[in-house]
Amino acid sequence: MAQQTVMERLEILADAAKYDASCASSGTAKRNSKGGKGIGSTEGMGICHAYAPDGRCISLLKILLTNHCVFDCHYCINRKSSNTRRARFTPQEVVDLTLAFYRRNYIEGLFLSSGIVKSSSHTMEQLIEVARILREEHDFRGYIHLKTIPEADPELVARAGLYADRVSINVELPTVAGLTRLAPDKSAGQIEGAMGTVKDAIVEARDARRKFRSAPKFAPAGQSTQMIVGADAASDADIVGRASTLYDRFSLRRVYYSAFSPIPDASAVLPLKRPPLIREHRLYQSDWLMRFYGYAPGEVQQATDAGGMLPLDIDPKLAWALKFRDRFPVDVNRAPREALLRVPGLGVRAVNAILAARRQRRLRLDDIARLTVSLAKVRPFLVAEDWRPVLLTDKADLRTLVAPKKAEQLELFAA
Taking a C-beta distance cutoff of 8 angstroms, is the pair 222, 252 a contact? Predict the structure, then answer.
């Protein structure tokens, strides 16, 4: 067989990396090259795109070190029993690609993951070597996200955070039963143990930085994880509960949800069809409710149906409001922030604007209309100076009246 060129391997390994959604770069420490000899930056305007907290788009080279793997996870295109084309980079080749892409202004950082070759610890050493060469030999100051391998030696997992801005360890599936069935080579205990190791290292590094400014940083953008949705029988309520537990136990920056995608020569234990993409979106919305809107996990789970599934035609915030109509309407001129955040159609920015404006004057319905995309969605749930919904909130067909049209379904609470 003819030896593959670098570009051929790049094509294979960049395509193989597309299934990993957890490549966002928000929360990283800012570094630039001004006044020094280093190259790269996590600042400025930016072949994968991630977004910083202020909305900047950051372009990342997103590849696998190799798609060879000794594991046989049923849902993975790179499992050892798959007949996919294989390729492999050396650490130096990944370094050269990263620098070449950066110098052409294609990227601002690197997202690096890998299949497992030889052993988990051997592969983890290779991933760390890429980051070490970039940081120590080339003074690379751009963003680096390393996907760590929970089965590797804990010391190696901990070392990754000394070079990477963010590290992530995928929990893979929402339930232990699903993981046991679909990823027999993986252990839920090992995965959570590795996440705990990273969390402890992050906390220790922050404490050390408070005492000694010269103390090394450790994964300043924190850690994240990813769950596959729709590959097993887990309901949305199960997934919401699992995500909440992960946030609480490991102080994660993000939990990412990735809709299961059928793969060639798939195992018979996998579903024949992928779940609706809107389901993935609804789970992200539920995640937002817990992180930014003050909803407890149990409240988000109350928005599900009898089978524990979130409705696909309306967002979970609206679904919750329709179930608990006794909490509405909310007076926009008197209600506290917590109550306003529960009004369907009002996002965080809209609520902040209402709180600022009502210090000056009484707000009318026209004022609210300027802060939301769908006034029809908002009206049944609020009281304004010139508006009271009267019996509208209690109408039997209210769901039909407030459900968004198909073109509007992907709005995230219409902030």
Answer: yes
